[in-house]
Design a protein that fits this description.
- This protein has about 300 residues and is an alpha/beta fold.
- It has one domain: Rossmann fold.
- Helices cover about 45% and strands about 15% of the residues.
- The protein contains 15 helices and 8 strands.
- The chain has helices spanning about 45-50, 80-90, 105-115, 130-135, 140-145, 150-155, 160-165, 170-175, 190-200, 205-215, 215-230, 245-250, 250-255, 275, 280-305, and strands at about 5-10, 15-25, 25-30, 50-55, 100-105, 120-125, 235-240, 265-270.
- The chain has an 8-stranded mixed β-sheet, with helices on both faces.
- Helix 1 (about 45-50) links the parallel strand 3 and strand 4 (about 50-55).
């Protein structure tokens, strides 16, 4: 599904991050959502690789990346730690400055990566999210119904892990059921990869800890940034599914302008999994956004020569 991409990886504090690299040009890191792996980009990454060096990575706890046992406060699954993994990956590949595109959980990691490594992240694109803090600060019946898994997975004491292990295939399939707006279906080969990885030892525990961190330590980090007035200072593109919860319940661009200094955005005719349901439209928007960085680099070089 990633013809021409080579397997790469890095290790940080004993956690291995698996990724695949293809194309040539300015670098862009693609991060997946729940309960997926890097395979969610199989319809977008090849198009981006025609103009960019593309790195598609598995987050810790997902895919073929390491799945450390969660610590008590879930700090080893905080978005700060997950972002640090990805920054280490890009540095190990020789990239000291790069763009980041994230969907769902990967977009939350991208948000944190931009806050913690502003000198390295040139641009961010987030797919079908508003910031975690904003979501938790605006819980209502619609949010609790559409995102019930946030509250289920954030429970402690082993209950969500045990229930998932009892019938993991049904749980996995349920995350996609009803979240489709008539575009392309999720490829069976990609779904088979999601299932293979979800059934690996430690995957249920790791991905659940991701949500438990989001409801605890991630909020501490986000509130600290808000209290200090820290926002993203690089350009941010927000894309969302026109039929999904985010697109129908938030003014997405307006929300992001509370968290980032320069925001543009657009709806894509799809539901939540827009990179798989509408890959052509997503790729086109991303290529336009990333091209702006290339133009800025050319302008800067021209100015230096002048």
């Amino acid at each position: 599904m990633f013809e021409g991409f080579a397997s790469v990886g890095s290790e940080r504090e004993g956690v291995t991050i698996r990724a695949w690299k293809g194309g040539a040009g300015t670098p862009v890191l693609l991060l997946h959502g729940y309960p997926q792996t890097h395979h969610m980009w199989h319809r977008v990454a090849p198009a981006l690789a025609e103009r960019h060096t593309v790195i598609v990575a598995d987050l810790r706890g997902y895919g073929d990346s390491g799945k450390p046992a969660p610590v008590e406060d879930r700090s080893n699954y905080s978005k700060r730690e997950m972002a640090a993994d990805q920054h280490r990956l890009m540095a190990s590949l020789g990239f000291d400055r790069y763009a980041v595109v994230g969907h769902d959980r990967g977009a939350r990691v991208a948000h944190r990566l931009g806050l913690d490594q502003p000198e390295a992240v040139s641009r961010i694109a987030v797919l079908d999210i508003v910031p975690t803090l904003h979501m938790f600060d605006n819980v209502d019946r619609a949010m609790a119904s559409s995102y019930f898994h946030w509250f289920f997975l954030s429970q402690r004491g082993g209950m969500p892990e045990s229930l998932q292990r009892a019938d993991p295939q049904t749980w996995l399939r349920s995350r996609f059921t009803g979240r489709h707006a008539g575009g392309e279906a999720i490829a069976e080969a990609a779904y088979a990869e999601y299932e293979r990885c979800f059934l690996q030892p430690g995957a249920i525990e790791g991905s659940t800890a991701d949500y438990q961190a989001a409801a605890s330590i991630d909020l501490d980090h986000d509130r600290a940034d808000r209290d200090r007035g820290r926002t993203l200072d690089m350009p941010l593109l927000a894309l969302w599914g026109s039929a999904g919860y985010v697109g129908t319940n938030f003014d997405v661009v307006d929300v992001w302008r509370e968290y980032a200094d320069s925001v543009t955005g657009a709806a894509i005719e799809s539901d939540h999994y827009l990179a798989e349901e509408a890959p052509g439209k997503v790729a086109a928007r991303l290529l336009d956004f990333l091209a702006e960085e290339d133009l800025e680099s050319v302008d800067a070089d021209d100015g230096a020569l002048g």
